[in-house]
Design brief:
With 698 residues, the protein is an all-alpha fold. It is 63% helix and 3% strand. The strands form two sheets. Strands 1-2 form a two-stranded antiparallel ribbon. A two-stranded antiparallel sheet has the order 3-4.
Length: 698
């Protein structure tokens, strides 16, 4: 299939007028000839690659070969077209030459679309490092990117802008002719643009001064010559307002270019100023025609679109991720530009216009965290808790004894080595925005805010980290705010995973997490809280990985009871499995401090918990035979699940309680039945119905 799609179809294979090539397959009757076109080959290649989406790493052994066989013909075609159209004008193109160019461009589109199909499965970063990165390819790839960008705008019916730029695109007639015959092709123009942007991203990192390889003769509107760097900036920035994957790739390409040490003096400062004014125009609707750097896209009389602002913020976040702190904030002029950008981002986050865009809010959260980290010295907190050497085998053999834990215990509460320093106001503002985003309505925004809090806290003094933890714990104050509970659980998990939640604060945190595992807030005829319970299980999982058995010994029984009850009786299958995974991690990491941990795991495994009836009626009576979990399970069934809002859960709870009552009838008679009998006269219909069912079953 790759041979049909690749450049071998130009030279080694004979192509008829309909571009049909022969493919052979082995059958029981011998060799059978199948006529395959490049479009059909590309479609079959997509179908095969999509099967690897569940486990993309399976492609790794063949990834380099696949990319090389697709990129080498692409490289050859791009160089040929670049040389051909830079040596002659549009008027020199005859009909036969135009047909040849169209055929090569069509093959190039299939090659680039095949590379995109692989990158969709394996990821852009894994593909980018395998692309050719010769210095001689910088200008040809840029030229092809401009050609396909022009074709994309023509396809989008932006005829006026396309016509204005046609004088800058060699072979414009040929490209229009290709578009006319390209309506039904499997290869898409935007896929070619995405692959070329990925390619240009690695080419922009060539270890040479880009001015030394600049042979462009294009001029700006003010008569000044446009350099190669400015041309890359203009071409890449023009895709920041695209609607799809090309926007993400263009942002990564710009970030890799602007992070070069030789471009941070002028181009980076200009891009930051242009970005801040673009955000200002989007927020206020006021168009500023005096924007710096004329090579960057200017507003066309209206405020920038949501997509352009998302592309700009995504580029800035990538710059602050891969750029060096010493250069981003080195000079007063550059620092002033970052502060102006910071002010505009804060105002944008508090503006109503971002409420309708989840992606924009997520990108703003990511930018807040990275700019906040840029204002702090790059260090790992010396005061953080470090568990030291960890071994699953040692835990299971030795029962989680005190081996190799003297060092970690001395460091756990030792803050004498903590260095106090002045924390800039921008860091406080960034942390405030991140804490506010923990209550956002979108899960991806809360998750991004939790990770940002972890990264930022890692660079703060211990006193500031305690303030951050106090602010997170405040989110548990209101029981009705499920989003705040979910965000707080995620933030606590990140702090624990990084060792930033010190053991002395666990008495405040563990009871809240145990309460979160059973969180269920009724809203009308349904309830919310499954996401909170799932996040609480993740927090328990993080605790098991972060702390030693001696630290968690005082809380392990409470944690185990909550996880076992949730894994058996939770209404949602994902929560049951999440609780089981957290309990399994705890048993493996902490050793035998869990009572009957291995026995419970072998009974209530991943597949057995997938069936709710099986969990209530078969697994629960088996695990109830262990005395340590018997009373908590009975209490949970009698107090919570028997009065649940879902009638099916009430029925299952009553039947499960009846089976467990045989194991401990004394406790049922003395403590459970009297309370159930009183609830039979409750005014709440669910409580009365569930209590009657439970009494009848018992």
């Amino acid at each position: 299939l790759i041979d049909i799609v690749s450049g071998a179809a130009l030279d080694d294979m004979r192509i008829d007028d309909d571009e049909t090539t022969a493919d052979t397959v082995q059958t029981g009757e011998g060799t059978k000839i199948i006529e395959t076109t490049p479009n059909e080959a590309l479609a079959r290649l997509r179908t095969i690659l999509d099967k690897y989406l569940e486990c993309p790493s399976l492609l790794d052994p063949s990834l380099e070969i696949l990319i090389r066989r697709l990129s080498k013909p692409s490289q050859s075609i791009i160089r040929e077209l670049f040389v051909l159209h830079t040596c002659q004008s549009e008027d020199d193109n005859n009909m036969s030459h135009g047909e040849e160019t169209c055929r090569k461009l069509d093959t190039l589109m299939h090659l680039l679309s095949a590379i995109y199909a692989i990158s969709k499965v394996r990821g852009r970063k894994n593909i980018q490092r395998l692309m050719p990165h010769d210095v001689a390819d910088v200008e040809p790839v840029l030229a092809m990117l401009r050609w396909f960008g022009w074709m994309d705008r023509v396809q989008s019916s932006d005829c006026l802008k396309a016509g204005e730029e046609s004088n800058l695109v060699p072979g414009a007639r040929t490209l229009v002719h290709l578009l006319e015959r390209n309506d039904s092709t499997e290869a898409k123009v935007w896929e070619s643009i995405n692959t070329l942007l990925t390619w240009l991203g690695i080419l922009s990192l060539v270890p040479f001064d880009l001015d030394t390889i600049d042979s462009s003769t294009e001029t700006l509107t003010d008569g000044k010559p446009m350099t190669l760097v400015q041309s890359i900036l203009k071409t890449s920035a023009s895709h920041l307002d695209d609607h799809g994957a090309t926007r993400d790739t263009a942002a990564a390409c710009l970030a890799s270019l602007l992070s070069r040490p030789d471009l941070e003096e002028l181009e980076l400062e200009g891009f930051i100023v242009w970005s801040s004014r673009t955000i200002l125009s989007f927020r206020t609707g006021v168009i500023n025609d005096a924007l710096p750097h004329a090579q960057l896209p200017l507003p066309d009389g209206s405020k920038p679109s949501n997509f352009r602002v998302m592309g700009v913020i995504q580029t800035l976040a990538a710059i602050f991720k891969c750029g060096h702190r010493s250069t981003l904030l080195s000079t007063k002029q550059r620092l002033a530009g970052v502060e102006a950008l910071w002010e505009q981002c804060i105002l944008l986050a508090e503006c109503r216009v971002v409420n309708g865009s989840i992606i924009l809010r997520k990108l703003l959260v990511k930018l807040f965290a990275r700019i906040g980290c840029a204002y702090l010295p790059p260090r790992v907190a010396t005061w953080r808790y470090s568990r030291g050497k960890r071994s699953l085998l040692d835990n299971l053999i030795n029962g989680g004894n005190e081996a190799a834990q003297t060092k970690e215990n001395t460091r756990a509460d030792d803050s004498r080595s903590d260095v106090l320093f002045h924390v800039p106001d921008q860091v406080e503002d960034a942390m405030g925005q991140l804490l506010r985003s923990l209550t956002d309505s979108a899960t991806i925004v809360r998750w991004s805010a939790a990770k940002g809090i972890g990264r930022l806290t890692e660079r703060l003094p211990s006193t500031c980290a305690d303030d951050v933890l106090d602010a997170i714990l405040v989110s548990f104050a209101d029981v009705d705010k499920d989003q705040a509970w979910h965000g707080a659980c995620l933030a606590l998990a990140e702090l624990a995973r990084r060792g930033l939640l010190l053991p002395r604060r666990l008495p405040e945190v563990v009871p809240l997490i145990v309460q979160s595992i059973g969180y269920d807030c009724k809203r009308g005829q349904h309830s919310v809280g499954s996401h909170v319970r799932d996040a609480a299980c993740y927090t328990m999982w993080a605790f098991s990985r972060a702390y030693s058995p001696t630290i968690l010994n005082d809380y392990i029984q409470e944690m185990s009871e909550a996880l076992v009850v949730a894994s058996l009786f939770d209404r949602e299958v994902n929560c049951r499995r999440a609780a089981s995974a957290a309990f399994q991690e705890s048993v493996g990491r902490l050793g035998n401090i869990h009572k009957h941990g291995i026995s419970i795991l072998t009974t209530a495994d991943y597949f057995a918990l997938g069936n709710r009836n099986e969990s209530f009626l078969t697994l629960a009576p088996e695990i109830a035979k262990f005395e340590e979990y018997q009373i908590p399970m009975i209490r949970h069934l009698a107090d919570v699940k028997s009065v649940h809002w879902d009638v099916q859960v009430r029925q299952l709870a009553s039947r499960s309680l009846a089976k467990i009552s045989v194991i401990n009838p004394a406790y049922i008679i003395s403590s459970v039945l009297p309370r159930l009998l009183d609830q039979c006269f409750s005014e709440d219909l669910a409580t009365r119905h569930g209590s009657l069912l439970a009494v009848a079953e018992v």
